[in-house]
Amino acid sequence: TLHYGRISETDDDLGDDDATSTLFDLTLRGLKSDGDMSYGVFIGAGVQDDYGDADERMTYRYLGVEFAHDQSWGDYYAQFGFVDGDDEYNESTSNAPFLNVGGRYNLENGYALTGALAIAGGVKYDDEYSNRILDLSVGAERDFGNYVGFVKMQHMQIFYDDDGFCYGDSFNTLSVGITMNFGGSSKHGSTLPELGRWVAYNANEVE
Fold first, then answer.
1. Which listed site, 41, 138, 188, 202, has its alpha carbon 20 to 30 Å from 102?
2. Main-chain dihedrals φ then ψ at residue 92, nearest 5 degrees
């Protein structure tokens, strides 16, 4: 996926030294089609440069299962998985099960409306605190064959519980980009949540 632009809004006290840069993210998928339904598994990993308070790189890995169903009006899908991050000070999202559900409503002339909702658990600081993530996105896309242009608005909340007190932050992001598909009419799987951002935001912005 190529993102032409991304604009994020967070609290004013977050500085440039909190930034994280993605170096690598790879997902492998195995999918089986059965008429208008498809199901399969996914596994992946990523590496990020941690420009926060750590000198080491941040890593994460994930795996899960997915299901999608095509309808006359569009499609819907569900994914259940597990993501585990690792960084120098154990601040990232770790040991986190997640559920992601979404869909697409087709309009005329190749246009469609999209939406997804993801929730995740996990821990922070070596199992010391319970972690929670809510990730909601809505958008629109235009199909150009092997290319799909899209615009998406995302609202994300990440927080953890410390003896009944919740600490966290909210993140609003506008993304504009192009997805390139290869393999003709082959199933490519539904869109995964931005797991790398779950890991990075929790490590450097939620303190």
1. 202
2. -80, 170
Name the one residue in this structure whose structure tokens are 């498809």.
Answer: 38
**What is the rounded end-to-end Cα distance, in angstroms, of the chain?**
30
Predicted TM-score of the model (pTM): 0.85
Report pLDDT digits (tens) over 38-57: 999 999 999 988 766 666 78
Partners of residue 135 on adjacent β-strands:
118, 156
Please answer whether residues 62 and 82 qualify as being in contact, where contact means their C-beta atoms are separated by less than 8 angstroms: yes
Q: What is the pLDDT of residues 135-153, one digit of tens each?
A: 999 999 998 888 889 999 9
What SS3 string covers 118-143?
A: EEECCEECCCCEEEEEEEEEEEEEEE
Q: Rounded CA gap, 131 and 140, in Å?
A: 30
The answer to whether 161 and 130 have CB atoms below 8 angstroms apart is yes
